[in-house]
Amino acid sequence: MYSVTVRDHMMIAHSFKGQVFGPAQRLHGATFVVDVELKRPDLDGDGIVVDIARAMEALRQVLSELNFRNLDEVPSLAGRNTTSEVLARVVFDGMAAAIARGDLGPGAAAIEQMRVTLHESHIASASFEDRVVARPSSR
Amino acid sequence: MYSVTVRDHMMIAHSFKGQVFGPAQRLHGATFVVDVELKRPDLDGDGIVVDIARAMEALRQVLSELNFRNLDEVPSLAGRNTTSEVLARVVFDGMAAAIARGDLGPGAAAIEQMRVTLHESHIASASFEDRVVARPSSR
Amino acid sequence: MYSVTVRDHMMIAHSFKGQVFGPAQRLHGATFVVDVELKRPDLDGDGIVVDIARAMEALRQVLSELNFRNLDEVPSLAGRNTTSEVLARVVFDGMAAAIARGDLGPGAAAIEQMRVTLHESHIASASFEDRVVARPSSR
Amino acid sequence: MYSVTVRDHMMIAHSFKGQVFGPAQRLHGATFVVDVELKRPDLDGDGIVVDIARAMEALRQVLSELNFRNLDEVPSLAGRNTTSEVLARVVFDGMAAAIARGDLGPGAAAIEQMRVTLHESHIASASFEDRVVARPSSR
Amino acid sequence: MYSVTVRDHMMIAHSFKGQVFGPAQRLHGATFVVDVELKRPDLDGDGIVVDIARAMEALRQVLSELNFRNLDEVPSLAGRNTTSEVLARVVFDGMAAAIARGDLGPGAAAIEQMRVTLHESHIASASFEDRVVARPSSR
Amino acid sequence: MYSVTVRDHMMIAHSFKGQVFGPAQRLHGATFVVDVELKRPDLDGDGIVVDIARAMEALRQVLSELNFRNLDEVPSLAGRNTTSEVLARVVFDGMAAAIARGDLGPGAAAIEQMRVTLHESHIASASFEDRVVARPSSR
Prior knowledge:
By secondary structure, chain A is an alpha+beta fold. In chain A, about 20% of the residues lie in helices and about 30% in strands. Chain A contains two helices and four strands, in the order ββααββ. A four-stranded antiparallel beta sheet of chain A has the order 1-2-3-4, with helices on one face. In chain A, a hairpin with a 2-residue loop joins β3 (about 115-120) and β4 (about 125-130). Chain A is elongated. Chain A starts with a strand and ends in an 8-residue tail after the last strand. The model of chain A is unreliable at about 135-139 (pLDDT under 50). Chains in contact: A-B, A-C, A-D, B-D, B-F, C-E, C-F, D-E, E-F. The interface of A and C includes residues 13, 14 and 28 of A.
């Protein structure tokens, strides 16, 4: 299996509901350094997994909907705890939708698997990995 | 699959038996920066893989049995080469036992897979990954 | 000149006032990975710059006043833009006060210089460095 | 599953053919920081996945055929785009051949899986992972 | 002294003249991860060293003149060994010129010192640091 | 001022004397990732601070006297606490002696300043920086 990984970041505010979160129930924030790994079994005719410039632009677009925002007030996230795990899934779904729309180019249709990792500090991160199939971004 | 990874470290002395180890047969030491990745297919009702504070405390406890010690004199490790690979397994078993005891909370029972990585320098690391099932820490 | 550097982090929300900040005028957040470097010309009788455990505890204390908070609502920061640069100074002043109080031990009185760096992402950081002298934390 | 990862690097020039590469169609270059992860289900009698010194030497040998060269002029790569993905495969095949020749010692015959990652910058990397079986280095 | 550091990168080909360079006399290449640290004694009225977005854009512009090129054929570098040290100076001069032109905003005139670091691999880097004064980019 | 930094590592055992060290009074160990930064005001005729291959070899030699050893039994260190700070100085003195002997080449005589940093974990490091002058390695 081949893969390519691209990195970007976002800076957000949020708060969590639930005693398990302790002081993180207060409004606070995070820098998420985001790695997206795109996997396919064979390379295309150019010798690549995907057009890396398009993958980076798609990631920038996905993150721009969250970047420099208070996630407690983002309608599409209403009623959910925007933990690192949940946000890894949100980024995954956004990238999967971009692939389905063709934003990463026609060759990206061969991508079979994707892993999204959000590094929230030098000592903690969260990931979501799944197969990539064209589907509505429901959860 | 979702995952959460937490990081801590330990500083130990040890020596190895076997010609393959060359100068590492002498008493020397290492800092191991330890990453523990906990995986489960779905998130709990709070939107998390596990209570990250509990996971970090469990890891600190597991490492405290080895930290600042000469592993050549730790009874539970007697007769074994405490290579990075072997220690990755020791940390894995310690974390699995903590999960089985409920130290990471009841939700941790949903953890299916765990990967432990020990970084021994900027150019070398070792990992052990396996399914997590409740079992005595024997090997 | 000898130095010792310790690292910790904090996760905060804030917003900035001023057109120069663009989208960062909105409420957002950051993880700051914080490095504190303590410098002195000679080592003490134990061969150290400072008791590193005390330095880490002092840093944890300084960060705990800001960690998991919305800095827009922290009274001691009212009316200021809590940029990375400003926060580097706030951490500097907090550590300098801890040294002056003796929290890092009597040997810490020999510390002459301190540098505080806040890493806000994988591509940006800010620092404040100055001489360390006992003084009130006013600015 | 156990694994050991070793790191080295190479510095090469190359150019790409194909509009998808944009300015990278010009002659340019890269530092590739290369991680090779070797996996096997059980450890040998010494408690290791592989003799790490031999693994590092084998990697150094594989990279030495490419290091400090213009890959556009390396005969064995003629007619191919030497993308990070393709080079990950080239390093994989070189390491697999070294294992098959016994360069990593007889115990390395138990290695079942290998993952090669080339970091081309702080924001992009490529990997190739596959089972390891004795075979000619054809592609 | 306050400072802000921004990071970007470039990927270039080049060769060196001189026996001291050994195999690096051949045409090869490098990824340079570039850190630019800008220093001034006091913050401006917004609480910043410099508009970080403008600093990143200026760095991108400076690197774009070298990025994805064979430096052996860049006229402005003719007759010089484009070592990491020399390129650190080239980036320094480019950023100093951008500051002098006002590209980083009027507040950047207060910048007194700049340090440019080029990371050429995980084990080697080079830096150039100097005072910043408006001057022609001669060397 | 120009500088070049090279990185290597060593893995040692040791123990400390003094209540301030707490559990580190026991025999334990560390991996030290070592950075040596060499500084001079101007480059030589080849456009370099120093022959980087010779600098790396000199560092390897200096570390080889300590690597894979129990520092409590190294005669030249008898009676001293081999803290990170003290070892930074030991490496500094070893590199300064190598420069004085000409091991880094005649051009290295122009090196004016050196900084040695030992990273003992992902959260702590120690440095020693001083002018470089030919002198006996007394302390």
